[in-house]
Design goal:
- With about 230 residues, the protein is of the alpha+beta class.
- It has helices at about 1-15, 105-115, 175-195, 220-225, and strands at about 85-90, 90-100, 120, 125-130, 130-135, 140-155, 155-170, 170.
- The chain has 4 helices and 8 strands.
- Strands 1, 2, 3, 4, 5, 6, 7 and 8 form an 8-stranded antiparallel β-sheet that branches.
């Protein structure tokens, strides 16, 4: 009986992933009283005011506070192909890559692996249908659809990845810049992982200590024993 109860308790704890997004610790600071004007008794002289020590009254009007603040680090685009570069701006990742790498032809396979259906596809644009995405750090279903576009210029492919819509548990979150960046860049990095050259997947050999090679390795085995 106790084993069953313990198992249920552990399962309940495992399903709650909110701790990955929330600040650790109490929120007593949110109940701090507001500053009041200093009342100077008659006849008491105080120093002249100086801007160096002025305390501004920060009134919070909207925005996330306390446990609502998402403390997860931002996701950044990582180009894995030599001579390529990527940037994130206003909800869109832009990749500039030599067209000889054929990144565009890899994208449908990446989407298929992630169970993201394609609604239209040509040489310049891929539009996906809505798909359920279950990130490792979320307990709720994320629904997303993407628009991926391509241009060619002087031997380069310019590929952009952006969202068509984004929702969490049925609520539109496409106006949340943190969530938009997370799911746009996440898909881009999946594409880059599939497009990475085989050489980048080889684990480098362990460097020899202090960069000094053992001199005996190049000698005649018989001489090395002398």
């Amino acid at each position: 009986m106790m084993t069953t109860i313990a198992s249920l308790f552990l399962v309940g704890c495992g399903s709650d992933q909110s701790y990955k997004r929330e600040v650790d610790g109490n929120q007593d600071y949110l109940d701090s009283p507001a500053l009041k004007p200093l009342i100077v008794p008659q006849g008491v002289t105080i120093p002249a005011e100086t801007i160096d020590f002025y305390i501004y009254s920060n009134k919070i009007e909207g925005g996330a506070i306390g446990k609502q603040v998402d403390v997860r680090p931002p996701v950044i685009p990582i180009p894995t192909i030599p001579d390529s570069y990527a940037s994130y701006n206003h909800g869109v990742v832009t990749l500039n890559v030599p067209d000889s790498n054929n990144v565009w032809s890899i994208i449908p396979s990446t989407l298929s692996k992630r169970n993201i259906p394609i609604s239209s596809n040509n040489t310049k644009e891929i539009v996906t249908s809505n798909a359920s995405i279950y990130p490792e750090d979320e307990g709720l279903s994320i629904q997303a659809s993407y628009i991926i576009q391509r241009e060619t210029h002087a031997g380069s492919e310019i590929i952009t990845v952006g969202l068509k819509n984004l929702s969490k548990a049925g609520q539109d979150i496409s106006s949340d810049p943190i969530e938009v960046q997370r799911y746009v860049v996440r898909l881009f990095n999946f594409i880059m992982d599939d497009a990475a050259p085989e050489s980048s997947r080889i684990v480098p050999q362990k460097a020899e200590k202090d960069g000094v090679k053992n001199e005996n390795t190049d000698k005649d085995p018989e001489l090395s024993d002398r």
